[in-house]
Specification:
By secondary structure, the protein is α/β, with parallel strands linked by helices. Helix content is 41%, strand content 15%. The chain has helices at 21-30, 47-56, 88-114, 121-125, 140-149, 156-164, 179-188, 204-211, 227-240, 267-278; strands at residues 6-7, 35-36, 60-61, 64-71, 74-81, 128-129, 132-133, 192-195, 217-222, 243-247. The strands form 3 sheets. Strands 4-5-8-9-10 form a 5-stranded mixed sheet. Strands 1-2-3 form a 3-stranded parallel sheet. A two-stranded antiparallel sheet has the order 6-7. β4 and β5 form a beta hairpin. α5 packs across α6 (156-164). The longest helix has 27 residues, at 88-114. The two termini are 32 Å apart. Bound molecules: adenosine monophosphate (AMP), fe (iii) ion (2 copies) and zinc ion. Adenosine monophosphate binds next to α5 and α6.
């Protein structure tokens, strides 16, 4: 018997993934995922075509997005699921992020120029991967790829490690959105709100703050995290009676070691998310 696997955390060419939504769906079919969601950073544009296509492919797909927020100066990622396709409030939030990112990228590019590295808005906007062009959300991974192409660094990781990482000289956060306001907007849109990759939260204090906020769940199973880490978050999730989701955070060829379906959400939890989605 096939295990029910729903990979509900991955990125397409609408943000920093290297596969188009159509290519992601084909891969999901090939590896026999039962449930699926594309969670691009700060955009929901992939859903316009993907949700309909998934129906024709017999894949249960729910809407999703991964929003960047800041809490006490720390960057926090929040996953939103099961809101109606193209919901106006979510779209408006994405538009705000689009502006934030344009000015933030400008700041980062300025800092890189001070270090003698010339990367332009045009170069990061027109970045291609194979036959695919990145379409909407542009951020540090795109800047890093241009830095590699221009020979300023050897790899994307080197670009993050030396210049673009949160504590590095060319980092900028830009305007920020709080966790609380992001949760509110997603709830107003009838979506479900999940803490993404909790193991990346740097301090216990910040994590405890989040545990007091009105989340619906936590991403307890993540990418290639070992069982010990999962267990810690499952214990907390059970105590809070939260949804406990899982996903790969697949980005395609820019993170070649992470495979689609390497972590997943189980049948029981996915069905709650799916029923929430189709009942909207
Ligand atoms: P941004 O949304 O512009 O702040 O960029 C964040 C994205 O950069 C994350 O979602 C990851 O895909 C990628 N990223 C973050 N840190 C690293 C790293 N050290 N190496 C490679 N990619 C990274
Ligand atoms: Fe990413
Ligand atoms: Fe993330
Ligand atoms: Zn992600």
């Amino acid at each position: 018997m096939e295990i029910f696997k729903a990979d509900i955390h991955c990125h397409s060419t609408y943000s920093d993934g290297t596969l188009s939504p159509e290519e992601l769906l084909l891969k999901a079919k090939e590896i026999q995922l039962s449930g699926f969601s594309i969670t691009d950073h700060d955009t929901i544009d992939a859903h316009d075509s993907a949700i309909e296509l998934a129906k024709t492919m017999n894949i249960k797909m729910i809407t999703g997005a991964e929003f960047s927020c800041v809490h006490k100066n720390e960057s926090i990622h929040i996953l939103a699921y099961s809101f109606p396709v193209g919901h106006e409030s979510i779209k408006a939030l994405c538009e705000k992020h689009h502006h934030r990112r344009f000015y933030r990228n400008e700041e980062i590019l300025k800092k890189l120029r001070h270090h003698g590295m010339i990367v332009t808005q045009e170069e990061i906007a027109n970045l291609t991967f194979g036959s695919q062009t990145h379409k909407k959300t542009i951020g540090r991974p795109h800047i890093a790829q241009v830095m590699v192409a221009k020979g300023y660094v050897k790899t994307v990781s080197e670009a993050f490690h030396k210049y673009l990482g949160e504590d590095r000289s060319c980092y900028a956060s830009g305007q920020s959105f709080s966790v609380e306001e992001t949760i509110d907007i997603i709830h107003q849109a009838h979506g479900l709100v999940i803490i993404a990759h909790p193991h990346l939260i740097s301090s216990g204090k910040i994590f405890r703050d989040l545990l007091e906020m009105p989340f619906d769940g936590m991403e307890c199973y993540y990418s290639r995290q070992h069982a010990g880490v999962n267990k810690r978050f499952v214990t907390i999730g059970q105590k809070k009676n939260w949804l406990m989701t899982g996903g790969s955070d697949f980005h395609g060829d820019i993170k070649p070691d992470i495979h689609l379906g390497c972590s997943w959400t189980n049948k029981e939890t996915f069905e709650i998310l799916y029923n929430h989605f189709i009942c909207q």
